[in-house]
Structure formats: structure tokens, C-alpha cells
Give the backbone structure.
Amino acid sequence: MANIIKYIPAFNPVSPGDIIFTGSLGGVGKKRTPPLFMFSGDVVEVEIEKIGRLRNVVA
């Protein structure tokens, strides 16, 4: 994680309070039983208390 924090400012300014989303390992949904994949129209929401909610629809 420290390497990511050092790398990102090389192309994008970073300020206190910024959040760095790195995603998850490849194949995470495929390894579930049963496998779980996202499809067009699915909704992904992430909420941080006292900050807000990020909502995206899969295209």
C-alpha cells in the first residue's frame, strides 16, 4: 500500500482526506460458490459515515 501512496502523486495531486480505491484481486467473483458476477444495470454503492455515498450503475 505504501508504494501506491508514493506512486499516485506522480500523476494526480493528493490532499489530506482523499480516499484511494484500489479495487479487489482478479477473480474474486469467479471464486465464490456459486460464482458472482456484475451485469449491466447492477448498482454499486459505497458509503462513508459523515462523508457521503458513491453510487455507480454498471454499464
